[in-house]
Amino acid sequence: MLESISVSLESLNLITLSPMLIAIVGALLILVIDLFKENLDKTLYVMLTMLILFVDIGATYSLNINERGFFDLMLVDGISVVSQLIILIASLFFIPLALTASSKRFHEYSYPEYFALFLFMVAGFQFMVSTDNLILIFVGLETASLSLYTLIAMHNTKGAHEAAVKYFTMGALAAGFFLMGSAAIYALTGSVELYEVAKILQSQGADSTAFMLPVLGGVVLMLVAVGFKVSLFPFHMWTPDVYEGSSAPMAGYMSIVPKLAMVTVAMRIFGIYINLDIEAVSYLIIIIAVITMTLSNMMALVQKDVKRMLAYSSISHAGFIMAALALGTTKANSSIFLYYAMFMVTNLGAFAMLWISQHKKKSFDERYDHPFEKFSGMISISPMAAVVMGIFMLSLAGVPPFSLFWGKLYLISSVVDFAVATAETKYMILAIVMVLNSAIAAYYYLKLIVYMFLRAPSTSETVVYANQSRPLNVVIGILVVITITSIFYVQPLLEFISYLVSSSGY
Q1: How crowded is residue 186: how many other Cβ atoms within 10 Å of its Cβ?
Q2: Which of 184, 227, 381, 391 is 20 to 30 Å from 169 by CA-CA measure?
């Protein structure tokens, strides 16, 4: 006779699922409301989505660290908590921008399905960062990706449809490589649980060439999957086109949240090999990171469109992140989350500022929506908008005392500390390369400032900076204040992040 298996709710520890369930239930609630009462004002759905995100943040913050739940599939550690908080806060800044959109140009915000898909996407990203089970990571990845493809396409322009198709194609390739990498890991270790994989690899030892060569093959497959999602060389070519076709706020959101979720997954997967002192993995990540940040900076220098310039800029920032990830130290991992927290504020603000300019015809350039010439003389047309955009550019360039300066400083210092601790010259060279790339990046950020402050307004068309509704002003105002006042909160924020990361064991 088969023995019955009893499972108690207490043993499942369902509280570990609460953040994701809040987002999923919220999405279903929006669909049910629309089912019973159609054509409600979008303000209701915006407020409801923000309320759900607020509750989700509270549930995430209240989780106990280092607990497992739901048959040990869910992992609540410091990395899970801090990454979820950044994802939710970025979402909370993004969603009020729907109130600023006109119904004709940005009609996607008029559909309740948009907000439901957005919450499903957030839940998918939360699943990705809250588990070390490769199958559940894949489920979260696909849930988030399929929702995001649809959100991009709902903008319903030719560029948006093209962007959605390109992103879907690249996402499908990334999913395929992730599955092949997971299959390779499972074939060699007999487990899809990363903590079990780590134990098996440690017991086998890194000295067995016959065993380690197939393992490294799985690493390469996983690195390709991460490369597609995070926009690493040579898998980055889709990024500028997809950002250009998407609405400006969505492009800013895509530059942060999906990448953060995948970087967190990469931190868990590659951290196993880095902790086992398999140097080939670290070297491979560093090489790709250096090429990524250098090549993307070179491409950003020659861009004629501000949105495409910011797209290549985000690729460069991804290279910075991966360089720190290759170290595998607590300080390096903490610097990654601090960097993303600072980058979130600055980049969301920069992309949101692209939304304030309106012109019906592409008088400045037949190809681009946001050419540099469009911002010529912005200081005389809209002084406040020019100053705010200038602050965001200075922050992206890493100029003190703005927010991203502290992220870059701590990230580079983690590389320098690692170089000193290991007495390895190559890591000091890596730090120098990162500094040089920061200097190169400053040029194209300052290029926009030159256009705004030192050039005369274009005579071909007067740009109307009219999309400045109260919600947009509030969101951008908050982002500017956070960017300027970072010197006052960066230390406690860093201590909070370091505490969570150090308690994770990764």
Answers
A1: 16
A2: 184
Domains: count for the chain: 1
Quick one: pLDDT at residue 84?
Answer: 92
Q: SS3 of 133, please?
A: strand
- Among 209, 203, 11, 46, residue whose Cα is nearest residue 119: 46
pLDDT at 359: 53
Per the listing, tokens 């400083």 go with 409
- Predicted local confidence at residue 466, as pLDDT: 47
Which are the contacts of 102, defined by CB distance < 8 A and separation ≥ 6? 467
Q: How many whole angstroms separate alpha carbon 310 and alpha carbon 316?
A: 10
8-state DSSP, 296: H
Q: How many CB atoms lie within 10 A of CB 140?
A: 23
d(CA 264, CA 19): 17
Kindly report the number of other CB atoms within 10 A of residue 277's CB atom: 10
Residue 75 makes CB contacts below 8 A (sequence gap 6+) with 16, 68, 130, 131, 132
- Say how far residue 451 (Cα) sits from the centre of its chain: 29
For residues 175 and 198, what is the distance between their CA atoms, to the nearest angstrom? 23
Residue 6 lies in a domain: no
Residue 5 resides in a domain: no
Tell me the residue range of the domain where 325 lies. 12-358+370-502
Q: What is the pLDDT of residues 396-410, one digit of tens each?
A: 888 888 888 888 889
Helix axis angle for 306-325 and 238-245, nearest 10°, is 130
Query: Where do the H-state alpha helices sit in 205-329?
Result: 209-230, 238-245, 248-254, 257-275, 279-301, 306-325
